[in-house]
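Example 3.2
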Amino acid sequence: MAKFIAKRLGLCVLIFFFATFMVYVLEYSLPTSYVEKTAMELSQRPGSLKSAQQWMDELNAQYGMDKGIVKGYFTWLSNSARGNFGDSWSQTMPVTDLFKKCIWYSFVMGLIAFVLEIFIAIPLGVTAARKQYSMTDYTVTVVSLVGISMPTFFVATVLKLIFSVRLGWFELVGMQGRNYATLDQWGRLGDLAMHLVLPITTLTIIGIGGLMRYTRTNMLEVLNADYIRTARAKGLPEKKVISHHAFRNTLIPLVTILGGSLPGLFSGALITETLFGIRGIGYYSYYAMVAGDIPFTMFYLAFISILTLLGNLISDILYAVVDPRVRIN
């Protein structure tokens, strides 16, 4: 296992190298108006002692834009290896400080939505498989197909229309209510929690459809296996057949899905956070891309690449852990 992990980590480093290089090429190919616009804004800010041309030369030199693609990329890679990702152009603060400021909102939302998906989708998928062609099965199938089919912006809009506009239970956007300044510490925490309800609900609705469908399909395949029929023929209770034999084997392919979902806890929900005005990493990354904020965009996409590679590695390791038949040589 240790040798396998070492090999995969080496492969991950290689893939990360090419992935970030491709991202850098795309960023390098952006129109120069992005850098010019940023330099012009910086030169016009109060207290600025540099001209627009000086700012533009400094920005290009800082991120290797004046050295060509290959040399520029290795300049960025060398700085990044030392933890120097530069300053966010749109937020005028170090990229790492902005990351620390916004990542926890995305993590809390992603973690709660992830837990809800597991506790809702997997039991319903198992129940639908046990009661195939029943009303329960048809209901779960319809709900899962609806969850898969509906885009994020549609779900978010419907939830805001019902619970914010019609019922008035939640705010439309933002992270603070009207009376936030007058609240104590616990009151402010409760106010923030109320603002996160609809975004988390949106993420959960979007996520349960695929997981529910996948669980049902794999459970049906397991229930039709010969060893399940043998267990039933021996007189084992149905509850034990399902929980001890069927579900444990259904869990094997689910690990691949769940392991790949773990990086999503930190990557943020770009569309959801933007629609609800939740200032997580997805929110800032969206506006960084729109504004041509190259430093933060490079950092975010490199961060996503690392999470994706780690997610795949985690899936492979967990697959070997839960399935005794898998042995890694």
